[in-house]
Amino acid sequence: MGIGYVVGVLGGALLAHAAYATIQYRAVLKITEEEFSRPPVDVMMQLLLGLALCMWAGVSVPAKFVSVLPHSEENRIVSLPANMDFMIFNHRGRALPSDADLKLKI
Amino acid sequence: MAATTAISTATAAAEEARLLRLEEQAEHGGGGAWEYLSLARRLRARRPAPVLRLGLSLLNDASARSRLASEQWTLYEQVAVAAMDCQRVDVAKDCIGVLSKQFPGSTRVGRLEALLFEAKGDWAEAERAYALILENNPFDQIAHKRKIAIAKAQGDMSVAVDYLNKYLELFMADHDAWRELAEIYVSLQMYKQAAFCYEELILAQPTIPLYHLAYAEVLYTLGGLENLQTAKKYYASTIQLTGGKNTRALFGVCLCSAAISQLTKGRNKEEDSSELQSLAAEALLKDYKQRSPSKEALIAGMLKNMKLS
Amino acid sequence: MAEELVLDTAIRDWVLVPLSVVMVLIGVLRYFVSKLMRSPPSSSPSPDPKTVKEGQVVIRARSLRTSSQFIPAKAFKARKLYYTNGESGLLHVPKEDAQKAQAAMFSDPNMAMDMMKKNLSMIVPQTLTFAWVNFFFSGFVAAKIPFPLTQRFRGMLQNGIDLSTVDVSYVSSRSWYFLNLFGLRGLFSLILGEENATDDAQKMMQMGGGMGFNPAMSLGAEKDSLDIIQHDWALPKMEHHAEEVLRKLLKK
C-alpha cells in the first residue's frame, strides 16, 4: 500500500486522461475532416508514462516477490510435514500435563 | 475423495523459519496468531501445544471468531486435533461438540469423533466408528489410514504393515502412506522392503533430498559393496540438493567411503579418483568450527581414523 | 457524433427492462426445474474400485516414467517388469475389457438420460426465449453504451441491425438478449448461491469434454511410453555436482 498505491492510481488516471485526449483529438479531426493516422505526441508520452507507473504499481503493491529458484538457500527443503494422517497419541503429551485453565468457553 | 487427499509438500527453509518466527511473535502477544495457525495448517506442522494455546485464545474471543467467519470451523477442527495431541480430551470434546452442532451428520466431524476415541485409547470404539464411515464411503482414505494408525498405536506392527500393504494395493499413488510404510519397515529392521518404499518416494518426489538421504541410510545399513557405492551416490545427491548444508549427508559420504575402502582393501580400484569424501570431511570440519568449536578436535580425530583428512 | 439518435423512453420501459427481468426470471426458473429433474440419489455415485485403482496406477507409472533416472537400474528394471510384463503387468488391459468400457459408456441408460435432461433444461428455454425475443423485439436499437467502441464490436452489439452507419455504441435488442444470457452469471451466483449458478458456457464446455476420460486408453498409452524409455541413471553425475557444491561452499 502507501506510495505504490498512489502511484498506481496516478498511472490509471494518466491512462484515462490519454484516452480522453484521444477522443477529443478524433472529434477535432472529424470537424476538420482529416484522416486519423496516429495519436498526438503528448498522448503517446502520457500513455508510456501511465504504462510505466501502472506496471510499477502492479508489481510493488500486491506483495513481495517470492524466490522460485530451487537452489536458493531459502527454498532448500529442510523438513517433511508431519504425517498427520498416521499420527498416534502415544507420546510424552500423555505424561506432561498441560495448562488446566485452557478451556473452550461456549 | 478430492477433499480427503491433502497435497503434501516438503517444507522449505524460508517457510519453516517464518513458522517459528510467527510462533515466537504470537506466543509473546505480538499478534499474528491466525497467520501462524494458517501456516501451521498449510505446512502440516505438528505443534500441538502452541496451536492449542493460540487457537483457544482466538476461539474464546467472540470478536476474533466473528472476524474469521466461516474459517472458524477449520480452526475448531485444528484446535480439536491439537487438544487431542496434548491429551486435553475435554477441550477436544467441546470443540467437536460445537462442530457437530454446526454440521450434523458430517463425515469430517465423524472422523474427529473417532479420533477422540483414539486419543482416549478406546480402540474398539474407534474401530467401530471408522467401520461406520467406511461403510458409507469405502474409499475414505483418511479412515483407512486411521485404522492403520490404530494398529500402530497398539504396537501391532505386523498388522499395521499388513493393512498398509493392502491400502497401497489400491491407493498406490499415496506417498504419505509409502513414507509411513518405509518408516515402519525401518523400525522393524526390514531394510530391503524399506529401500523399495524409499525408491517409490524418490520416484514420486525426486527433488526432496530427505528421501535421498533416507534411502542412502537404508542402503548403508544393508551393507555390501554395491549397496555402499549406491548409498554414497545418494548421499552425494543429498549434498547437491541441500547445498552441502546437511550434516548427516556429509557424515554419510565419509562413512561410506571409509567402508568401501575397507572392503576393497588390497585391490584398489578406480574408486579413489573422486575427491568427494575429502571435500565432505573438510566441509564437516568447517561446519563444526563455525557452530561448535569445542567439538572440532573430536571430529578431526574421527576423520583421521577414517583416513580422510 | 454529429447527430445523436434519440431513443424513445417507451423502449426503455417496454423493451430494455422487461427483457432483463424476463432473462433473470427464466434463469431462476431453469435452476429450479433442473433441480427437480436431477435424479435425486446419484449425486456422487461411489466409484468402482477398479477405476480408482486404474487412476492410481496411471499416476504411479507416470512418476516412474518421468523420474526414472533417480533410481538404480535394478530397481527400475523390476518396476518396469511389474508394470508392463505381458498379461500380469499392472498396466495390462484385457482386450474385451477395453471394448466393454466403451460400450458401457454409451449403453448406460442412466448416464444418457442425465445428459439428455441437462441438455433439455438448457436448450429448450433458450430456443423459446430466443424465438420470443426475435418475434417481439427484433430490429431496433434498445440502448446506448455511454462510451465509444471500435467497429469490431458491431457484431456483438448490433446483432440484427444491418446498418453500417449507426454508431457502435448503440445496442440492438437482440444483442441485449445475448449480453444478458451470458452476462447474468454473476447475478445468478448472488441469487442462487455460489455453485448453483446456471452456467451456460461451462455446461457447453462439459458437453464437449465430458466423455473424454477412458482409463483403459490411458493405461495402454502409459504402457507404451514405459516400454520405450531408456533408463539413464543420473546419480553417478551427482557425485561431480556434489563436489562442485562443496567446493563452492568451502571457498566461502
From TrEMBL, chain A:
<keyword id="KW-0812">Transmembrane</keyword>
<keyword id="KW-0256">Endoplasmic reticulum</keyword>
<protein>
    <submittedName>
        <fullName>Uncharacterized protein</fullName>
    </submittedName>
</protein>
<dbReference type="GO" id="GO:0005886">
    <property type="term" value="C:plasma membrane"/>
</dbReference>
<keyword id="KW-1133">Transmembrane helix</keyword>
<dbReference type="GO" id="GO:0005769">
    <property type="term" value="C:early endosome"/>
</dbReference>
<comment type="similarity">
    <text>Belongs to the membrane magnesium transporter (TC 1.A.67) family.</text>
</comment>
<keyword id="KW-0472">Membrane</keyword>
<dbReference type="GO" id="GO:0072546">
    <property type="term" value="C:EMC complex"/>
</dbReference>
<feature type="transmembrane region" description="Helical">
    <location>
        <begin position="45"/>
        <end position="66"/>
    </location>
</feature>
<dbReference type="GO" id="GO:0022890">
    <property type="term" value="F:inorganic cation transmembrane transporter activity"/>
</dbReference>
<dbReference type="InterPro" id="IPR018937">
    <property type="entry name" value="MMgT"/>
</dbReference>
<dbReference type="Pfam" id="PF10270">
    <property type="entry name" value="MMgT"/>
</dbReference>
<comment type="subunit">
    <text>Component of the ER membrane protein complex (EMC).</text>
</comment>
<dbReference type="GO" id="GO:0005794">
    <property type="term" value="C:Golgi apparatus"/>
</dbReference>
UniProtKB/TrEMBL annotation, chain B:
<dbReference type="GO" id="GO:0072546">
    <property type="term" value="C:EMC complex"/>
</dbReference>
<keyword id="KW-0802">TPR repeat</keyword>
<dbReference type="InterPro" id="IPR011990">
    <property type="entry name" value="TPR-like_helical_dom_sf"/>
</dbReference>
<dbReference type="Pfam" id="PF22890">
    <property type="entry name" value="TPR_EMC2"/>
</dbReference>
<keyword id="KW-0677">Repeat</keyword>
<dbReference type="InterPro" id="IPR039856">
    <property type="entry name" value="EMC2-like"/>
</dbReference>
<feature type="domain" description="EMC2 TPR-like">
    <location>
        <begin position="108"/>
        <end position="218"/>
    </location>
</feature>
<comment type="similarity">
    <text>Belongs to the EMC2 family.</text>
</comment>
<protein>
    <recommendedName>
        <fullName>ER membrane protein complex subunit 2</fullName>
    </recommendedName>
</protein>
<dbReference type="InterPro" id="IPR055217">
    <property type="entry name" value="TPR_EMC2"/>
</dbReference>
<keyword id="KW-0472">Membrane</keyword>
<comment type="function">
    <text>Part of the endoplasmic reticulum membrane protein complex (EMC) that enables the energy-independent insertion into endoplasmic reticulum membranes of newly synthesized membrane proteins.</text>
</comment>
<comment type="subunit">
    <text>Component of the ER membrane protein complex (EMC).</text>
</comment>
<keyword id="KW-0256">Endoplasmic reticulum</keyword>
Automatic annotation (TrEMBL), chain C:
<keyword id="KW-0472">Membrane</keyword>
<dbReference type="InterPro" id="IPR008568">
    <property type="entry name" value="EMC3"/>
</dbReference>
<comment type="similarity">
    <text>Belongs to the EMC3 family.</text>
</comment>
<feature type="transmembrane region" description="Helical">
    <location>
        <begin position="14"/>
        <end position="33"/>
    </location>
</feature>
<feature type="transmembrane region" description="Helical">
    <location>
        <begin position="120"/>
        <end position="143"/>
    </location>
</feature>
<dbReference type="InterPro" id="IPR002809">
    <property type="entry name" value="EMC3/TMCO1"/>
</dbReference>
<keyword id="KW-1133">Transmembrane helix</keyword>
<keyword id="KW-0812">Transmembrane</keyword>
<dbReference type="GO" id="GO:0072546">
    <property type="term" value="C:EMC complex"/>
</dbReference>
<protein>
    <recommendedName>
        <fullName>ER membrane protein complex subunit 3</fullName>
    </recommendedName>
</protein>
<dbReference type="Pfam" id="PF01956">
    <property type="entry name" value="EMC3_TMCO1"/>
</dbReference>
